[in-house]
Amino acid sequence: MTEMTDVSPPRGRTALRPWMLVLPALLFLAGFFVAPLIDNGARSFLGEEGGFTLARYWQLLSDRFYLGVIFETVALSAGVTLISALIGYPVAYFLVRKAGKWSGLVIFLLIAPLLTSIIMRTFGWQVLFARRGLVNNLLVDQIGLLDRPLRLLNTPEIAIAALVHVLVPFMVLSIASVLQGVDRRLEESAQMLGAGRVRTFFEVTLPLSLDGVGTGAILVFMIANGSFVTLVLLGGGLQTLPLLIYQQFNTTRDFGMASAMSTILLVIALVCLWLQLRLVRRQGG
Amino acid sequence: MARVTRPDWASLGLLAFVVAFFVFMLAPILVVVVVSFTSASYVAFPVPGWSLKWFWHIFEYEPFIDSLIVSFEVAVGATVLSCLIGIPACLFLARSRAGWASAVMTFLLSPLSMPMIVIGFAGLFFLSWVGIGISFTALLVTHTVVCLPYVVRTVAGVYRSVPRAYEEAAAILGANPLAVFRHVTLPLIRPGIMAGSLFSFLTSFDNLPVSYFFGSADTNTLPVVMLSYMEHQFDPSIAALSTLQLLLAVVALLVVDRLYGIDKMTVTG
Q1: DSSP conformation class of B50
Q2: Domains in chain B, start-ordered, CATH in brackets?
Q3: What is the ipTM metric for this complex?
Q4: Which of B37, B90, B109, B113 to probe the A interface (max A CBs under 10 A)?
Q5: Which residues 6+ apart lie within 8 Å of A167 measured at CB?
Q6: How many domains does chain A fold into?
Q7: What is the largest CA-CA distance in chain A?
């Protein structure tokens, strides 16, 4: 009776102890997710000749170069998040309020890009903005606006656009799911009481949907913070923590330093996760 | 519930914005599909002529095929493993009212929120220390960490919406717990398992930040090989591969959607 099969239902005979069903997953993550992260954190405090050291963190948090990289990581993620919110909100509004029978198509178009590989999208940006790409082709040959192709690739702008492209669907879906729950009668009441459409939007609709913006913002910020494929291929001179970890691993091979940078990235992620949980709890979800 | 919406400038402006948005979303993807059918030996858009030669080129470049097989094996393996450990956990967590159950749920989903590059980097050193360093096993285990949340989230979401009454009825009629699971619970949560497995497979198949750290001749996955190829060459074979990959994802999504109606789950879940 002490033996437990993985497939027994949640409320079997009490001797089977249903809570044991979570053990395989729990132990697996403890062994292959938490343990590596703790090991990684420990390595960042391990001195060259053994012993405990804070030297790497001291360097990361005092050196102008590293501070710049940390700042750029956070600023890039924040920028991408802000742009995604500004672009995503109108699309979410359209999806919930205006699309009507087209909403299925809009959702399909939003989800379809999520099925493409990150490599494919990066390649797409290269095709569009290469020296002989579509954009230069249009500007130079077709319209004749310029007499020489522009250098468009490897600029921060393209890297940011590519990141927004990857992340904005998450923002739209987060906002749309909250906007869907906003009671339209509140807006109608505001209008009946004499508020114009603009005022109704800014004083009723927008505040009521801010939770969706918040959820989406944390999600986008979190993913942007860890992304590096886009920056490796479209970089544009941007230096972020993930990119630096990648370089440390590849060329410098200073693993202790890479561990310390990973830990900082992890702490940022944990703060985001904490904010996310707080927000979800407030929504009562 | 027919609502009469008069066309007005604000709505038209919004519509124009949404159209521009989708041009932005689809352009980088469509150009890759077009370029994959080019007859030119270089990447240019518009393409000078059409051919399928870059699709044939994929099969001539051995690392692509080898890594494609590795990617497929890892994605299937990680998905199966995620289901084996994830589904039992969902069965308990989705029905438990215990306070710690929601904490465990958060924990099982937390790999989603961690930077993948950190999971990969930390995993490499830890697994080397344990003795499975750069190997297929290491790749499989780390991919499972990343895939598990997709299975757990989708299966738990579906199971929560299943009324307890069905299982209770079966139990009252004398079915033992195993029979209840096989004949009642499993068929009810199957859509969640299929959808979660699909997300898990696609996530693993497309994963680069984790796979990157476990790269060797035998364990390079397709995205890793594509990345290193792209860092040195810029030719349409990457476009052809991407197009094939997209086709695979779309077909898989359509099949699962046709069988189980996936759109309801992704949007509300």
Answers
A1: B
A2: 12-51 (no CATH), 58-268 (1.10.3720.10)
A3: 0.88
A4: B113
A5: A80, A81, A84, A220, A223, A224
A6: 2
A7: 82
Percent of chain A whose pLDDT exceeds 70: 93
Residue A14 lies in a domain: no
Q: For A126-165, how does the pLDDT look when each residue is reduced to its tens digit (9 = 90+)?
A: 888 877 777 877 777 777 677 777 777 778 889 999 999 9
Name the residue among A40, A120, A126 with its Cβ closest to that of B246.
A120
- The predicted structure's pLDDT at residue B76: 97
A71 and A49 together in one domain: no
Cα–Cα distance for residue pair B198/B214, rounded to 1 Å: 23
Running DSSP on this structure, what letter comes out for residue B185?
A: I
Q: How far apart are CA A232 and CA A227, in angstroms?
A: 10
| A197 shares its domain with A257 | yes
Given pLDDT bands bounded at 50, 70 and 90, which one contains residue B99?
Answer: confident
Predicted pLDDT of residue A194: 86
Q: Which residues of chain B make contact with A169, given a CB cutoff of 8 A?
A: 25
DSSP state of B46: S
Contact B121 A116 (CB under 8 A): no
pLDDT of residue A16: 66
